[in-house]
Amino acid sequence: MFLKKLYSEPPTLFQLVEFKNGINFIFGKKDTAKDTKDSLNSIGKTTLLDLIDFCLLSDFSKKNTRLYKEIKRLTNHKIVLEFEIQSIHYLIKRTVDKPRDIEFGLFSETPKVIQIDDLKEKLFGLIFDNPDYRGKLDSSWYRKLMLFFLKIHKRQRGQFLDPIKYLSSEIGKEIELNQYHFFLLGIDNTLLCRNYDAQQGVSERNTAIREVKRLVENHYQIDIKNVDSEINRLERRIKKIKKIIESFQLAEQYDDVEAQANLLTRQIKELSAQNFWDNKKIETYQESYELKDILDTRKINQIKKLYNEASLLLGEKIGKPLVEAIQFRKQLALSREEFLSDEINALQTEIERRREKIKKWDEERAKLFLFLDSKEALKDLTGAFYNLAETKTKLSDLEGKVKTYHDLLKEKADWELKDKEINKEILEYVDVIKPQISSFYEIMSSVYNDIYPKNQDNLSFGVSPKPRTNAKLSININFDDGESKGKNRGRTLVYDIAVLLHTIKKNINCPKFLIHDGLFDGMDKAHFIELYNFIENTLSQGKKFQYIITLNEEGTLNQNFGGDFEKINADKIEKEAIAVLTPANKFWN
Predict the structure, then answer these.
(1) What is the per-residue pLDDT across 338-376, written as a single tens digit (0 to 9) for each?
(2) What is the CATH code of the structural domain delimited by 2-188+433-581?
(3) Which of 64, 254, 364, 553 has the most neighbouring CB atoms within 10 Å?
């Protein structure tokens, strides 16, 4: 993969950047000699590299503060990167408006919109896929492999301290990084991938075990070690509740018992009401019975006298009927008393009969209530069923968590067993790959000796087994560069250049470019001269690759570069640079 062009559509954001074979300078130059050192900061050198990374599908979020803060500027623009793979011309167009929908395709055709995850897989196949590689290679590695070739400042600590570690926080510890480095070196990384899976397996199970343990202890207020006793307690409670329910045989039977009790209550109320009203009737009849219908002789004589005074004739005529009426009245009163007495007796008999029924039904109802109470029905059998269901749910949940906990412990033990197996294999593995390590060391040593000619053969490179550590081995790079503060940067420089040349020599599918942003800050510029000469000599041998670096003009040339003043100077760098930026002519238009 070779970079060709970077630009925007519409072309108003920045000047077109064209990449070339060999060294590609992104040069920060002062406008005047009086400019301060800080005047070369924030002119856009690294922003240019961020846009390359953006087109190669870096995450666009607030984490990438440098580019994300330009979101308003970038809106309604497409960032376009043209590149070449196996002499085929491709392009990518990406926007901040829809950063997950990317246009990609052949340069000669209209690009198609592809989702970012699908495009990562596609680019992995185009850039990294290697059918002849004997180790493991996964399309999910696309960004992590790409970051080796995109060493762009992320404004974080610890950059360029270790050549095996990338600059980005997207990649973790050497246990993961070793897989990628061995692929780049063309060495079978199967054992390292197995080890990474094993360590991840243990780590993930440990995390899950802690979470299950926390859930159990917080929810049930018991130590996970004592969970079996809690399960036994819940099982006993379920049996007890079941016995309570079984005493009713079935829930439907309880419904029948409850319905029967309700019916008896209703019937008792009805009979009691009838007795109440019949008692009222008896009281009324008794009052009526006690009021005797008696006409004494004095009242009868007064009536006769009244009639005689009114008319003698009338008195004579009604005298006999009046006697008959008095007799009839007496007979009627007697009959009335007999009727009332019979009615009272009949009502009292019926009331007594009802009382017997009420007594009988009340006894039956009392037995039902006593039956319910004696079976500990929790006042209502529905409550018993609810309690049973709740307890079963709690038991099931606890048993499920415990099963998960035990399964996780077993899985962890399985992964730990694999870890032990890898510990045994790692020593033999290091011996097996020694020839390949030696082959790479030759290339790296050549790079080192050319860039550090005063320290010939002071480089050491090797792979050391560390069976008791998670990584299982360590890639070691050391060389004697005195007490130079740029020593770690120098190690990164030598190793990265060596890896790039190694992938070319071994025909390993990888990007054929390497970006170093700010690597030479703090390094002896004499080494830069040697690097320049080394790259020029390598290119003259027919090698094709791109080395993209950011560089600032500082002080005088002698202070900056020393050595071969005629070979490389500020004017030459400015002339060869693919982008020259100044405080007055920054990256953004």
Answers:
(1) 777 888 888 889 889 988 888 888 888 777 776 555 444
(2) 3.40.50.300
(3) 254
